[in-house]
Amino acid sequence: MLVNNIKNKSQEPKAKSFKDIFNQYNWDETLQSIFNKTSVDVESALSKDKLDLEDFKALISPAAKPFLEQMAQRSRMLTKKRFGNTIQMYAPMYLSNECQNICTYCGFSFTNKIPRRTLTDDEILKEVTFLKAKGYDHILLVTGEANKTVGVDYIKNAIQFIRSQFSNITIEVQPLDQDEYELLIESGLYAVLVYQETYHQQEYKKHHPKGKKSNFEYRLETPDRLGKAGIHKIGLGALFGLEDWRADSFFTALHLKYLQKTYWKTKYSISFPRLRPHLGGLEPKVEMTDADLVQLICAFRMLDEDVELSMSTRESEVFRNNIVNLGATSISAESKTNPGGYSVEPQSLEQFEISDERSTEEIVQMLKGQGLEVVWKDWEQFG
Amino acid sequence: MNTNLTIADKTFTSRLFTGTGKFSSSQLMKEALLASESELITVALKRVDVQNEEDDILSHLNHSRINLLPNTSGVRTAKEAVFAAELSREALETNWVKLEIHPDPRYLLPDPIETLKAAEELVKKGFVVMPYIHADPVLCKRLEEVGTQCVMPLGAPIGSNKGLKTLEFLEIIIEQSNVPVVVDAGIGAPSHAAYAMELGADAVLVNTAIAVSQNPVAMALAFKMAVEAGRMAYEAKLAPVRKQAEASSPLTSFLN
């Protein structure tokens, strides 16, 4: 029997992509198994140095709520040990709101009747000048998905155009093919954020009925293509509100663990976007409270000491003032979610309303007041 | 007093090397590093703007006692490391480089193959190379052969504060090395540092344990004292550890 097992294991084909792993799981069973976790499971997870995905399930389960303070203390300690008393600053820069996709939750959705705009080089330069004056050196470029106007060539041009101005360039755009990523990496791209939105396949289809984004599997395999292309960092996440946050977080963690083992030279970050109001807005199907979000952030930190945890201006002042001490490692400030929003056309329509509207200077003072060193630059392209 | 340590063309009174990461402010970093009396301080090239004289970290390290040791943290290959070293030599006007090639971003464990390749090339280009490596005695000899001026084996993963987990191999490295051995990474307490020095390490490099402590200035001083005590004990020769009590009636007394 034992011999057979060993034989089977050695013959088991290695997963070709995350899809092979993902298909072994069932959403409802996964969710049920999270809700079945007890305080004994939580205590067991709290007693370990190296946590596995079953421990992670326990920590995001309702049974872990009474242990939230303990989790927060642990998360803070682990974060300080790995990242020190520092917070990385970054700024998003929206390049375009043109989009061929229909996404039920997004202000830039194809059917929304809003003026569309894609920044020219001159306009990009104005935005860059604004952000550089604020001190930013890590930038996140964001577009919708419109291949004719904001395809790979446009993104490549934008990266090359701003490359001398920023140490670290990340994009959040439509999923691309491996060779396209290779081209962008060569042009100076550091990281790509690609959130699955939800790992619930049927719900995903409902929220993305039209456009290339409706292809669930192509999106699911995007981090694999990025890993193969040799990207430095991949950002994962789910959009909380579409489906149950616990199950979506489990699948995000499963995705993370698979990627870390497969593309071991790549860094990973996790983001925690919760649905925000926007034009024609969608009400969250499943609510995620502040306490839930704290629980999740602490659980991710306990699962993985090294993963970067990012916090955007979607969250409130009070929440962000506190989360920088609980596990978050990078934050944005004063973000504009409309193309040209910083200086070209501040009045244009936003993708979503931000919540924390404080200026960069105010955020920096808040961080310093908490004994945190603000890191502007933490990357250099060598060669 | 302890003997001085010489690496390449520099002589150090202090055998405590330090780093600049993870401090809650540049001012606190400066105070702690001055308290440590460290004379060789490593700084990640990726964290500083070498073109900017007013760079926050670099401007706080402008002190007559401090020698900068730029490190290549963030690079994944020998090629990138060589590029980084050349950039730093030009901008920071030092040919010293702490060679760190860790393609694994989680545990930051060094790649021995790329490190050896880069070390060989950098030595040829005239650099003083201080390679961060696993506690691998054979790799240390190979690095010595290509001309690195010291070796920097790890005690435990960077930032782990776990102490000398690689003890058995550090002892072999210290025994065999013809170049100074600097124990780098993993040292989490002054007692770990003192122990490394008692074993005969020529120096230690400490960063996280100082930067993340509740009182970095006091902790820096504690490490300074521990390193001095450990070295002093090593130079004074520790009394041998007895494996058994000496019998009052020796078994071989009948031979007399």
Structure report:
- The complex is a heterodimer of chains A (383) and B (256).
- With 383 residues, chain A is α/β, with parallel strands linked by helices.
- Chain A has one domain (16-375): Aldolase class I (TIM Barrel), CATH 3.20.20.70.
- Chain A is built from 16 helices and 9 strands.
- In chain A, strand 6 (267-271), helix 14 and strand 7 (308-311) form a beta-alpha-beta unit.
- The longest helix of chain A is centred in the middle third of the chain and has 18 residues, at 245-262.
- Chain A is globular and about 60 Å long.
- The N and C termini of chain A lie far apart (53 Å).
- Mean pLDDT of chain A is 92; it is low at 1-10.
- With 256 residues, chain B is of the alpha/beta class.
- Chain B has helices at 26-36, 56-60, 78-92, 112-124, 137-146, 167-176, 190-199, 208-211, 216-236, and strands spanning 5-7, 10-12, 16-19, 40-44, 67-71, 96-99, 128-133, 152-153, 182-184, 203-206.
- In chain B, strands 5-4-3-10-9 form a 5-stranded parallel beta sheet. A 3-stranded parallel beta sheet of chain B has the order 6-7-8. In chain B, strands 1-2 form a two-stranded antiparallel sheet.
- In chain B, helix 4 (112-124) packs parallel to helix 5 (137-146) and helix 7 (190-199) runs parallel beside helix 9.
- Chain B is globular and about 80 Å long.
- The mean pLDDT of chain B is 92.
Q: Topology, pairings included?
A:
The complex is a heterodimer of chains A (383) and B (256).
Chain A: H1 2-11, H2 18-22, H3 27-35, H4 39-46, H5 53-60, H6 68-83, E1 86-94, H7 121-134, E2 138-142, H8 152-162, E3 168-172, H9 178-186, E4 191-193, H10 201-207, H11 216-220, H12 222-229, E5 233-237, H13 245-262, E6 267-271, H14 290-303, E7 308-311, H15 317-323, E8 330-332, H16 360-369, E9 373-375
Parallel strand pairs in A: 1-2, 1-8, 1-9, 2-3, 3-4, 4-5, 5-6, 6-7, 7-8
Chain B: E1 5-7, E2 10-12, E3 16-19, H1 26-36, E4 40-44, H2 56-60, E5 67-71, H3 78-92, E6 96-99, H4 112-124, E7 128-133, H5 137-146, E8 152-153, H6 167-176, E9 182-184, H7 190-199, E10 203-206, H8 208-211, H9 216-236
